[in-house]
TrEMBL record:
<dbReference type="Pfam" id="PF22809">
    <property type="entry name" value="DUF7014"/>
</dbReference>
<dbReference type="InterPro" id="IPR054280">
    <property type="entry name" value="DUF7014"/>
</dbReference>
<protein>
    <recommendedName>
        <fullName>DUF7014 domain-containing protein</fullName>
    </recommendedName>
</protein>
<feature type="domain" description="DUF7014">
    <location>
        <begin position="21"/>
        <end position="143"/>
    </location>
</feature>
Length: 153
């Protein structure tokens, strides 16, 4: 663990993923952190991306918005169109959507980033921290919609 800030938010994300039994997302997030800790930045980025995708899939499947695994862009569109994020927050959510659409794995396709040694630690830290805070954001929004769904019943 390279900084306390990241660890604090990781603990919150782990607790939320565990609370909602999003075990696949939880396992991939922990793997991302483990790979980051041993400086295997390529595998850390791969697992960070999988963790956010798995979180979105879990939310969409629990809400019965999908019944099969979808692509990241499909999941983002479903989350936006299904009002997981309230309309009045959609403008603020735009920056999160843009972060979710970033593919950190594209780094390894660049000529100068072929191995983990070539991927800067600060980029991996940013991608991992963005993933962690995005997971927290999405699960908190999911929890809010669950409360609203209970009131409607």
């Amino acid at each position: 663990m390279k900084n306390d800030f990241q660890f604090t938010f990781l603990a919150v994300a782990v607790r939320l993923l565990d609370k909602h039994k999003f075990s696949i997302a939880l396992n991939t997030l922990i793997k991302a952190q483990d790979f980051y800790s041993i400086e295997d930045y390529q595998k850390s980025l791969t697992n960070a991306l999988l963790a956010i995708d798995n979180t979105m899939q879990s939310i969409c499947m629990n809400k019965k918005w999908i019944n099969t695994v979808g692509s990241r862009s499909k999941l983002i569109n479903i989350i936006c169109n299904s009002k997981l994020i309230p309309g009045y927050l959609q403008n603020q959510y735009t920056s999160l959507v843009n972060i979710l659409r970033i593919d950190p794995l594209s780094l390894r396709h660049k000529d100068h980033y072929k191995t983990s040694d070539d991927i800067p630690e600060y980029f991996t830290a940013f991608a991992l921290q963005s993933t962690i805070t995005s997971i927290i954001f999405l699960i908190r929004a999911y929890e809010d919609t669950e409360k609203i769904d209970l009131v409607k019943k």
